[in-house]
Fold these 2 entries.
Entry 1:
Amino acid sequence: MKTIEVVAAIIRDGERIFATQRGYGEFKDMWEFPGGKVEVGERLEDALMREIREELDTEIGVDSFLCTVDYDYPSFHLTMHCYMRSVISGDLVLKEHESARWLGMDELDSVDWLPADIGILPKIVCEVNCSGGLD
């Protein structure tokens, strides 16, 4: 089975998390955390910064590593490295996604998440609650 390695940014503003809706492909209209594929020889953090610049025209800060998710989709295995991040500059301009929303902790289950992303929602809630919510 083919393995795809990606990075994902859980972009945080206080107790709100930024979610994006896919505008293309097999999982069109489902929600995910922004990010993308890691290029050969690329550091994970560099891949994440590059992907967010490309997808959202935004610079993000280096906050903390959250977790790595391994998930088997029907046609590939996904390894997704997830990082908590905050916006340094930019307006989160959607270049590839069809929609986006800021979700509060009580709204995280209000969108149709990709299967691999669902598993990290409890970790996000714990991270936000453990760090005191507002920065």
Entry 2:
Amino acid sequence: MSHSTTSLTGLTSQYAKQVAGDLEHNAKEQERITTEITALQQQLASLQQDHTILVSMQQALGIAATEPKPVNNDSATVPSPRKKTPAEPRKQTRKATAEQPTDKKPAADKRAAGNTARKTVQPTLIELVGRHLTEQSEPRSAAEITTALSQSHPDRGIKTTVVRTTLENLVARSQAQRTKQGNSVFYTDTNSPEPTPTPASETGSEPAE
């Protein structure tokens, strides 16, 4: 009996040590994973903030683009493995596909035509501003250009600050000229002759933009 009791005590002690070691390892793994999750959440928050800033800049520049949809990890599913099919049904599928080669082309053509139509109907703000400058024979201020574009495109919601930023981008690209008359700044197309600034004594105090 003493020998059996000693063996049982030894096994109990061995299992107790193993369980204690497993618990310690489990706690360390939980701490490590929690740290990684916290770091990833901080990276995600930083990326989301950068994304918001970039979208605002893109809208200010008048660049039309489709915002990518956020990834929803909860709805992500693992694709099921492909099942092997007999060789004969596979040949029949290929044959049926070859007999109907024109089904996908009209759909692709319609999508391409739709994209082209949208691009034609909705030009970017930088295109509208540049086109407006080429049509003018005299210098125009950012406020005047905003008024003209708002009348011709009331659905765009064009703002003076965005138009001024667009004009400065055109000047930086050498696609427009900037001149100053009194307290006001005027813009012209690069192909137009550079206007001669009028002295302040003759023009009086002109309103700023």
